[in-house]
Structures are given as structure tokens and as C-alpha cells.
Amino acid sequence: MISVEGPSMLILFIVLSAIFLHQDNAHFRETNDQGDFKLLLEILSKPRLLDRRKEELGNFLEPKTEAFSWKMCGSKTDAIQIKTLSVAPDPIKLPGNITLAFSGSINSPDPITSPIEMELTIKKKLFVWITIPCIDHVGSCTYPDICSQSNASSCPPAFKKYGIPCSCPIKPGNYNLPPTVMALPKENMPGWLSEGDYKVEVRLRHQSKEILCLSATGSIDD
């Protein structure tokens, strides 16, 4: 079993939209802003009943989240293409183990080098989708260079076994990870990542050109 933490968790975020690192440098101008921000975090941190467990009470404001789903949201000419992606169990148990499998390709004439910018957007469903703010570089953030946060020495054994890169440069080619069990320890997760339905979108850019857009919707069960 693989324990997912540190840079390896970053790689998993990328793959899931890599499940669930706009860096937010704004400063609060008023005490009320700070209070509202704290209240928002408290609301987001509360466990939420999953859509699939709700009784039919009329029309939902948003389509129901019935199961894990994903899609490519960019162009078919993007350098990175994910072809298959599966995550089990559904919903994901946290803490707990997940079984991850994916296949994809990197279609580039040359290896993709640093810097690679990642824009990550994470939303939680509270009747409608609410964007998780960027807090301590975790949440809906933009990372100028994910290569600087990756480390080949902490690459999960299964990634090494199947030749999946955990650091830059990233060589072109086909990549495949068969079903692999990974551990998701609760202590490494942000406080807002509680029970509920989530939507994640990840965009990667290299030299100002988008090379990947992937979105996923799924659920977490404490």
C-alpha cells in the first residue's frame, strides 16, 4: 500500500485534477472581512449530506452528484491527454484507502520542462457550488511552478515501477497506472476537506500555453 503525502499528494492532485497545490496574496482591509472569512471556512468545514443520500425534495439548484465522474475540459491538441481514470471506493473514505488507475499520454516533441503553472479550482456543494479559497497555498490556488514542488525521491513505488514521472522534465510518451491502492491519511488533509460533494478543475500551462485541463466531480465520506 502507498501512503500519499507531500509531493506525491501533489502528483495525485494533478491526476485527479490530480482529487483533490491563484496564489492568494490579498490582505483584509477590515476586521469584518476577517470575521466573514473565518465564518466561511467554518461553514465549508461542516460535513454535508451527499446528494446521493438525499431524499427527493423537489428540484435541486444544481444537478445531483450521483457518482464520481471526470472529463477533459481542454483541447484535443493539449500536450497532456488523460484517456482513462478510475477511483474507488465511491464515495472516497477519508481517512482510508483508495484504488487509483489511469492511462494517458504526453504528446510533445520535447520533454516538458520547468516552469509548469497549475491553476487548481476546488468547489464544495452547499446547495450550490462554493469555491474553496486559497489558504496557506492549499485550495483554489495558482502555483507558478509545480516542478519546484515535486521530488523524485518521494515518488510512490508504483509510479516508479510503471515509469510515471514525479519530477520535471516530463518525457513524452504513453503512461499507464494499473489499479493501485493508496492511503489517504486524515492528518495531511486541510480542515475544510470534510464529508460532502466536490468539484475539482486543474489547468496546467507551459510557456503560457495550456497543456492540460481536467475536471472531476466526486464525494468524500468521513
TrEMBL record:
Keywords: Signal
UniProt-recorded Gene Ontology molecular function terms: enzyme activator activity; lipid transporter activity
Keyword Glycoprotein on entry: no
Signal sequence residues: 1-26
Magnesium found in the keyword field: no
Any one GO BP annotation for this protein: ganglioside catabolic process
Superkingdom: Eukaryota
Gene Ontology cellular component annotations, sorted alphabetically: cytoplasmic side of plasma membrane
SMART domains in the cross-refs: ML
Pfam families on file: E1_DerP2_DerF2
Domain MD-2-related lipid-recognition: 70-218
InterPro entries per the UniProt record, alphabetical: GM2-AP, GM2-AP_sf, ML_dom
Protein name: MD-2-related lipid-recognition domain-containing protein
Organism annotation: Ridgeia piscesae
